[in-house]
């Protein structure tokens, strides 16, 4: 009877220890899954960062081309306005000033 009681207690302790071991194993598996998910997320974020950096480099290059073209257009417009101003001055210098007629 005492041996049976001792065996029951030992089996209960073993059952409790197995339950704790199973719980610890589940926590460990969950932690590994979580870590794996985090690593996957980090890899995706690094891919996104690399893609965004490449997109930014391309946009900056295009912006440089646009700025160069805008500067060229500005210079051409300034020259055209200067030429038009000279032409207007010459035309005005050649035409006699007509007195305004009063009504």
User: Oligomeric form of this entry?
Assistant: single chain
- Report the span from N to C terminus: 139 Å
Number of helices: 1
Q: How confident is the prediction overall: mean pLDDT? A: 91
Shape: rod-shaped
Question: From the alpha-carbon coordinates, what is the Rg to the nearest angstrom?
Answer: 43 Å
Uncertain stretches: none
Q: List SSEs in N-to-C order.
A: H
Provide the β-strand percentage band.
under 5%
Helix content: over 70%
Question: How would you characterize the overall build of this protein?
Answer:
It is a single chain. 90% of the residues lie in helices and 0% in strands. It is built from one helix and no strands. The termini are far apart.
Topology:
Layout: H1 2-94
Task: Summarize this structure briefly.
90% of the residues lie in helices and 0% in strands. By secondary structure, the chain is mainly α.
List keywords for this structure.
103 residues; mainly alpha; 90% helix
């Amino acid at each position: 009877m005492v041996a049976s009681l001792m065996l029951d207690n030992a089996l209960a302790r073993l059952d409790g220890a197995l339950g704790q071991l199973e719980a610890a194993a589940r926590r460990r598996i969950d932690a590994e899954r979580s870590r794996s998910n985090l690593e996957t997320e980090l890899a995706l974020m690094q891919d996104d960062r690399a893609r965004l950096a490449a997109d930014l480099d391309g946009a900056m290059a295009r912006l440089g081309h646009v700025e160069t073209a805008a500067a060229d257009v500005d210079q051409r417009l300034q020259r055209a306005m200067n030429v038009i101003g000279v032409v207007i001055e010459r035309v005005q210098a050649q035409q006699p000033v007509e007195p305004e007629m009063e009504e």
